[in-house]
Amino acid sequence: xxxxxxxxFKIMKNNTLRVNKGENGDVSELPPVPLxxxxxxxxxxxxRKIINIPDVYNYDKFDFSGPRSYDPITGYRSKSMxxxxxxxxxxxxxxxxxxxxxxxxxxxxxxxxxxxEYILMSIASQAAISISNMKYNLEVKAxxxxxxxxxxxxxxxxxxxxxxxxSNVSKYIEILIDHINxxxxxxxxDICFDENRREQLILATMLHDIGKLIIPLEIMxxxxxxxxxxxxxxxxxxxxxxLWYIDFLEGKITKDHWETEKQFLIIAxxxxxxxxxxxxxxxxxxAFVHTLSEKVYTNSNGNMKxxxxxxxxxxxxxxxxxxxxxxxxxxxxHVDFTEKLLLQINMIENFKDITLWASCHHEYLDGTGYPKNxxxxxxPFEARMLxxxxxxxxxxAVDRPYKDSVxxxxxxxxxxxxxxxxxxxxxxVKMFNEAIKNRHNK
Length: 442
Fold this sequence. Notes:
Blueprint lengths: L1 E2 L2 E2 L4 E3 L4 E3 L11 E2 L5 H8 L3 E3 L11 H10 L6 E7 L5 E8 L1 E2 L5 E2 L3 H44 L7 H21 L9 H13 L9 H4 L8 H21 L5 H23 L5 H12 L1 E3 L5 E3 L3 H7 L8 H19 L10 H5 L22 H16 L11 H13 L5 H16 L1
Antiparallel strand pairs: 1-2, 2-5, 3-4, 6-7, 7-8, 9-10, 11-12
Helix pairs in contact: 4-5, 4-13, 4-15, 7-8, 8-9, 13-14, 14-15
């Protein structure tokens, strides 16, 4: 094969010496042939000519010192030789077919018949085209893999708070696939993953969050309940302290009233910051937020305003995570965008299921998932696997500022609970648990 300005041995067969390398063996120990015209195969490749030599021992145009020194060692006698360049339909050099020792019906070595040249040239042409198509297919797959890696890296790089999510989910999927294949080999289950099915699922896993490229960064990177609104509230409270002090100086309120309002606002600044970072809210926290939303003041324009705005109140009262209901709905659209983006890619037949599997990773078997509220009959096995790995990674991740991570055992308990409630596939959760335990035990 012509690669990197040299001819590299790929397949070698010799019936006499019982050599069969390349298809079932390794020929990498043989050094590549440089493209120099003294080498017969290189000459054929450079000039795109068929070389038909009756006896290499009596032919001085090329350097046959290799065969002449090698033959005594093996007991083989290289004599007649036919060398044919392999060119594809675009006249690109693919490699060289080198045949040694044509035999007559009695097994005697004879020169290659001239008629063989035309027959073998036709075969060589078809072989070259077939090899080119195979290489193009491998190149397309390699290109797709590189593009997928770029997209996955871009998604995770958008936020510092789940920068390993995609790679971790992919790792868990590979562990689960391997475990399923082991159970298939020992006859415990019927399902298994061949090379193509495995490759598709891994690619789908790497692309499952590509829709997050569309989600606004202020939502993606919102690490606290208030986000950038915290400074606005704290500055407002400082402003209110000044307003109450002016009212005191102007005699509108008593000193005790001024001290009471000032002390409340000082406490409020501290309390709001605590609530802003809290993973769980107490009844006292919730009551305090309601108090803030009910307290009013008169601004410089004479208008009555509450201490906190309705949007700020909604953020402070978030019970789980850091997103409001509206922000959660926006975040959920990443699955819709995943599907829309992947539908723009003209997937080859071997990768036709990637879009479906990637866009179903938030669907539950009981129809309570999103975005399409699919039920069990419409959720592929692979998407069920991806959903489980995705949830497990989210539960055990240690880089999420808006929640505490849980242990592997606790995460598994949550997965089994979801399975018992009809949301996740029980059999897959069981196999995933086995796979993770086996990994930890190694």
